[in-house]
Write a structure and sequence with these properties.
This protein is mainly alpha-helical. The chain is about 75% helix and about 0% strand.
Length: about 80
């Protein structure tokens, strides 16, 4: 990756992190969801990731349904 691509990627990651922090202020379960997604994607093939994406789109904004889909239990503070 060249310097320009690296800088662009860093900016994108920073923007995503800011969005996650903002959403997590209202919905703390977002952090659990993000962690579970990172774990799931790191262990999945491209077709599995695409299928998961389609399932998640069906439950957009429904945090309990998304958590169930990802097989995660809410943290005690949720």
């Amino acid at each position: 990756m060249n310097g320009q691509n690296s800088t662009k990627r860093t900016a994108e990651v920073s923007q995503i992190a800011s969005l996650i922090r903002a959403k997590a202020q209202k919905h703390p379960e977002v952090i659990d969801i993000v962690v579970a997604l990172i774990d799931r994607v790191s262990r999945s093939s491209q077709p599995e990731i695409e299928a998961l994406g389609k399932q998640l789109e069906q439950h957009e904004g429904d945090y309990p349904a998304i958590m169930k889909l990802l097989n995660i239990q809410p943290s005690p503070q949720h």
